[in-house]
Amino acid sequence: MDTKFCRDCGDYRPVAEFSKNARSRDGLAFYCREHSAERSLRSREARRTKPRVRRMPPEETTVPEGHKWCGDCGETKPLSEFVKTRATKSGIGSYCLPCHAVRCRANAERRGGYRTYHLSRRYGITADEADHLLRLQDGLCAICRAAPPSHVDHDHATGAVRQLLCFNCNGGLGQFKDNPVALRAAAAYVERHRGDRDESSRPPVTPARVPRRRAQWRQFGMCRYGFSSLHELEPGF
């Protein structure tokens, strides 16, 4: 890997411009050094101007046994209405389920939305990086160049993201287990049995049929693997 995508730059940068980060999948920081420094400065300024406030229940509030006070809504609720977590000794989170959901949505939006969360968790890329790859491929599958991509193709041995593929091409690679010898043999087999058939008689390559569920995902601007619809990314496409 010679380059890495920086979301703040909106493009790929040499890996030498990224700091080390043992917590990330590739061992590198999420942003280049320049933008990491800018983000750290803004974070320090925010902590300086808005110090962290420890939320405690008001003195007049009585918390019965088996209940807990939520610092966001200010209500005392049964422990069953709080999230469970390993981060605390009690195993109970600090906020009730509705308030926890609101905080999760806000945190996800600050980090680029749920789409970025799922892409980064599964493939180590952000939604901006997936959109950038889609634009580089002109909105088409990297193999057949005919159908819109709907899958992030990655090396199953290293986890490195390669490019974006359509349903058929991604499934074909999977069936051949990414074996280049088998793929070349299959291509030779097709060429050998095609003979001198007129090219004009060959059936045209058509986009893969979109199942109903995937069509519903695209209706809301997403598909199962985190892509925005092409019409949403490229209004004139």
Would you write up a description of this structure?
- The structure is a single chain.
- With 237 residues, the chain is of the alpha+beta class.
- The protein folds into three domains: 3-48, no CATH class; 67-107, no CATH class; 124-196 and 205-233, 3-Layer(aba) Sandwich (His-Me finger endonuclease fold), CATH 3.40.1800.
- The protein has eight helices and ten strands.
- It has helices at residues 33-49, 97-110, 114-123, 127-136, 167-175, 180-194, 212-219, 230-233, and strands at 3-6, 11-14, 18-20, 28-32, 67-69, 76-78, 82-84, 92-96, 151-154, 161-165.
- The chain has a two-stranded antiparallel ribbon with strand order 1-2. Strands 3-4 form a two-stranded antiparallel ribbon. It has a two-stranded antiparallel ribbon with strand order 5-6.
- The protein starts with a strand and ends with a helix.
- Mean pLDDT is 79; it is low at 215-226 and 228-237.
What's the short story on this structure?
Strand 7 (82-84) and strand 8 form a beta hairpin. The protein has helices at 33-49, 97-110, 114-123, 127-136, 167-175, 180-194, 212-219, 230-233, and strands at residues 3-6, 11-14, 18-20, 28-32, 67-69, 76-78, 82-84, 92-96, 151-154, 161-165.
